[in-house]
Amino acid sequence: MQTLFDQKVHHEVLRRLDSLTENSTPNWGKMDVAQMVKHCQMPLLVATGKMELTEKVGVLKKLLLKLYKPILYNDKPWPESVTTPKDFLVTEPQVFELEKAHLKTIINEFHNKALNMHWPKHPYFGNFSTDQWGKMQYKHLDHHFRQFGV
User: Fold this and answer.
1) Of 47, 62, 75, which Cα lies nearest the Cα of 133?
2) Which residues contact 98 (CB under 8 A, 6 or more apart)?
3) Which residues are CB-neighbours of 48 under 8 A, at least 6 positions away?
4) Closest to 80 in 3D by CA, of 148, 12, 9
5) What would you measure as the largest C-alpha separation in the chain, in angstroms?
6) Taking residues 27-33, what's their average pLDDT?
7) How far apart are the first and last CA of the chain?
8) Which distant-in-sequence residues (6+ apart) come within 8 Å of 131 by Cβ?
9) Cβ distance 25 to 131 under 8 Å?
10) Name one Pfam family in it (predicted).
């Protein structure tokens, strides 16, 4: 699985982001391109400790999520029908160019923290290694870029 901490992968992700336009349409799902770009910022913000999740998860659901955890960073692409956590839902209209620029900044900040970042404990899944964070963030971005055909 590719990682957002690899320089070539990082550049490819930014190239794919740059190829999105406000007229890009989804191959699946309910979000438009501006909402998707806003949504993609959120897991990166959680990873860097800049966003806290508010959805309460019970003990049983946490146990089930721990079983699901390896799917977040393994080599298999996420299915199109993955349910979006409530904290990551974006339903309000967004300004595409503004959110695209913000996502690019957040991707670069995340990429630059590979060697010096103390990773916060994920509120649902527990601890991730640097390698797992990099793979998971790449996999999430790749999922949505494929959603919009880039």
Assistant:
1) 47
2) none
3) 106, 109, 110, 113, 117, 120
4) 148
5) 42
6) 96
7) 18
8) 3, 5, 73
9) no
10) DUF1569
Q: Which two tokens stand for residue 27?
A: 């191959």
Cα angle for residues 119, 120, 123 (degrees, 5° grid): 140
CA dist., res. 53 & res. 65, Å (int): 15
| pLDDT tens digit sequence for 78-129 | 889 888 888 999 999 999 999 999 999 999 999 999 887 689 988 888 899 9
Q: For residue 147, which of 55, 34, 29 has the smallest C-alpha distance?
A: 29
Return the SS3 of 128: coil
Looking at residue 118, its amino acid is: H
Distance CA 90, CA 39 (A): 6
- Residue 148: which region, alpha, beta or left (left: phi > 0; alpha: psi -120 to 50)? alpha
